[in-house]
From TrEMBL:
Residues 17-162 form the DDH domain. InterPro entries: DDH_dom (IPR001667), DHH_sf (IPR038763), DHHA1_dom (IPR003156), Oligoribo/pAp-PDE_c-di-AMP_PDE (IPR051319). It comes from the Bacteria. One of its GO terms (molecular function) is nucleic acid binding. Residues 256-328 form the DHHA1 domain. This is Uncharacterized protein. Pfam families: DHH, DHHA1.
């Protein structure tokens, strides 16, 4: 990994205009790692142009979020380096309608278990840490040593990113190093974790209609549950469409595995930016189903108990058939 660290530094030195991207439907860690990366790069290399682009804002207030360039279409024109955070491949960050050139040199800063085929002019930094935020922190701490210093904003981002992806240190991806990094950041600014958890657990009241729609589709098979909304329902109901993403996230993280007798499952949301594309999120309880292997066979990936995939299917029925067939195959194995 030391070689990759040095390659990272060389790529940065050789670039003049850097574009930061993260995965579609970014979560707190995706935003925090990207904002942290942008802030540190500008402090170390003030003459470089560093831009973080996304298609949506964070759902909670984060330091530096006003500097995110919110766009309808991601473009790489004019940039000589692309850095991906919290994603192992460019395909996880862009839609068919985006215009991002894959031939531009790339740096990938990730922490997921799934590794994609390495491309030319690409540097991968992934030591399977608790979060992309922890990986960004460790990269600069080791590579730049005393040149790298945290301030209140970057310390806040470190704490938010780690807490969000570790479930407040409850998940087994938490390591002693995770606690050390968090303590380093907390020594500079003491983030109120209770307040963060409270704000991060909220969902807009506009999502209520979509939550009800999802619950109407709930299916339970043995210890697995799944939910979905159909594309045509979102196309015909603006209120449903506006609340679908928040409803999906809420039910995925705070409902699906908490049904009595249910230990794992998945939830589906149509990708309204790309025809016949669907987001499928898998979640499992520790000690039960490995959902990463299922997601990988479907073309995605992630962690053992939290994975996802973007799948092409011309109908919800065809999509469910594809997913359930793969699940049946793994349950019989």
């Amino acid at each position: 990994m030391k070689k990759n660290y040095n390659q990272f530094k060389e790529f940065i030195k050789q670039s003049k205009k850097i574009l930061i991207l993260t995965h579609k439907g970014p979560d707190v860690d995706a935003f925090c790692s990207s904002l942290l990366l942008k802030q540190i790069l500008l402090e170390l290399y003030p003459k470089k142009k560093v831009v973080f682009r996304a298609k949506q804002n964070p759902s909670l207030k984060l330091p530096g979020m006003k500097e995110i360039e919110i766009v309808k279409e991601l473009k790489s024109e004019g940039f000589d380096l692309i850095i991906l955070t919290d994603a192992g491949d460019l395909s996880l960050c862009i839609e068919d309608t985006d215009n991002v050139e894959d031939s531009i040199p790339q740096i990938i800063i990730d922490h997921h278990d799934t590794f994609f085929e390495k491309k030319k002019n690409t540097v991968l930094v992934n030591e399977n840490m608790s979060s992309a935020t922890e990986q960004v922190y460790m990269l600069f701490r080791i590579l730049y040593k005393n040149e790298f210093k945290l301030n209140e904003d970057s310390s806040t981002l470190v704490q938010y990113g780690i807490v969000a992806d570790t479930g407040r240190f409850l998940y087994d991806i938490t390591t002693p190093n995770t606690h050390r990094v968090f303590a380093d950041a907390k020594s500079i600014v003491d983030v109120d974790l209770e307040d963060f958890a409270y704000r991060n657990s909220k969902f807009p009241r506009e999502a209520t209609h979509a939550i009800i729609k999802y619950l109407e589709s709930l299916k339970i098979e043995k210890d697995m549950a799944y939910m979905f909304v159909d594309r045509k329902d979102l196309e015909e109901d603006l209120e449903l469409k506006q609340g679908a993403s928040e409803a999906q996230a809420f039910l995925r993280d705070r409902y699906l595995r908490f049904i009595q007798g249910v230990h794992w499952g998945f939830i589906i949301k149509p990708d309204m930016n790309t025809k016949d594309s669907w987001f499928v999120s898998f979640r499992s309880t520790k000690g039960y189903q490995d959902v990463r292997v299922i997601a990988e066979e479907l073309g995605g990936g992630g962690h053992t108990y939290a994975s996802g995939v973007l799948i092409k299917a011309d109908s919800i029925e065809a999509l469910l058939t594809k997913i359930l067939n793969i699940i049946e195959k793994h349950l019989k194995a």
